[in-house]
Specification:
The chain is mainly β. The protein contains no helices and ten strands.
Length: about 120
């Protein structure tokens, strides 16, 4: 069964940057829309960014102009470059498809933005 493994999270000061990675355990999802989601403490999981197989990108209003999603299908990996991080970006970040597939949810990677 294919698994998605997120990495790259950490503790960063407001205004800083992080780059998240999501690797698939095997060659898969080359034709699928890939996505990043996040869940802040006490809140529901929300969609952050999507990227189609053709490279079309969509972003949540809260991250537009600060985050960039990209993909490398040769490496079965999707990335999220996060710049100008804000306190409200704190949360666990997950990757999945869009729409998401339940069995693909992984452990996520924690992003903590401090003041």
């Amino acid at each position: 069964q294919v698994q998605l493994v997120e990495s790259g999270g950490g503790l960063v000061q407001a205004g800083g940057s992080l780059r998240l990675s999501c690797a698939a355990s095997e060659r898969a999802f080359g034709i699928n829309t890939r996505a990043w989601y996040r869940q802040a403490p006490g809140k529901q999981r929300e969609l952050v960014a999507t990227i189609t197989s053709g490279g079309g990108r969509l972003y949540a209003d809260s991250v537009k102009g600060r985050f960039t999603i990209s993909r490398d299908d040769a490496k079965n990996t999707v990335y999220l470059q996060m710049n100008s991080l804000k306190l409200e970006d704190t949360g666990v970040y997950y990757c999945n498809l869009n729409p998401p597939i339940e069995v693909l949810w992984g452990q996520g990677t924690q992003v903590t933005v401090s003041s």
